[in-house]
Amino acid sequence: MTQTIQTNGVAVPDQIEIERTFPVPPERVWTALTDPGELARWFGTAAEVDLRPGGALRFVFGTSWDVSGVIEVIEPPRRLVYAWEADADVASGPGTPPMTRVEFVLDPIPDGTRLRVVESGFGALPASIRRSSRDGRVTGWTREMDHLVAYVTGEGD
After folding, report:
1. What is the pLDDT of residues 88-111, one digit of tens each?
2. Quick check: 65 pLDDT over 90?
3. Helix 26-34, helix 127-152: angle, nearest 10
4. Is pLDDT above 90 for 4?
5. What's the N-to-C CA distance of the chain in angstroms?
6. What is the pTM of this model?
7. For the chain: N or C, fewer Cβ within 10 A?
8. Is the dihedral of CA 15, 6, 3, 19 positive or negative?
9. Of 29-38, 58-67, 70-79, 112-121, which range is least confident?
10. Neighbours of 87 (CB within 10 A)
């Protein structure tokens, strides 16, 4: 059950969930999610990934935006969890941007892979960015998952 938080009288769900299916094995999707060179082909313009629990990651989206985070869980090729900046421009403390948690779960299905992406923690964000962060991530993940499908199926090259 998704928790809902009130922000200025408007309900804001604590998490978002997006699911896609791919006609390729989980190992192929896993590589696209974790290899910096592959990430840069569909998720932003550059990526740095230290693929281990506690490892740092950074995604660059052109010249306008980049986001950093820390890997929490890695279970190749089935599950990846990291915390990342919800809004690098709004610090909740000295130099500490508010964070959300992203979980990728890859399940093999008869004709490929089902990928579920859950981003949570919006309810813990400062009220001033809670709704805009969540709305921005819904738009962003929808677009990026479409890019990932195109990339791993060869339609995005």
Report:
1. 555 445 567 789 999 999 999 999
2. no
3. 130
4. no
5. 38
6. 0.87
7. N
8. negative
9. 58-67
10. 20
The radius of gyration computed from the CA coordinates of the chain, to the nearest angstrom, equals 16
What are the structure tokens assigned to 19, written together? 């699911």
3-state secondary structure of 110: coil
Q: Long-range pairs for 146-149 at CB < 8 Å and ≥24 separation?
A: 147/42, 147/43, 148/20, 148/22, 148/29, 148/32, 148/33, 148/42, 148/43, 148/115, 149/20, 149/22
Q: Are the CB atoms for 110 and 14 separated by under 8 Å?
A: no
Torsion of CA 24, 26, 29, 34, to 10 degrees: -160
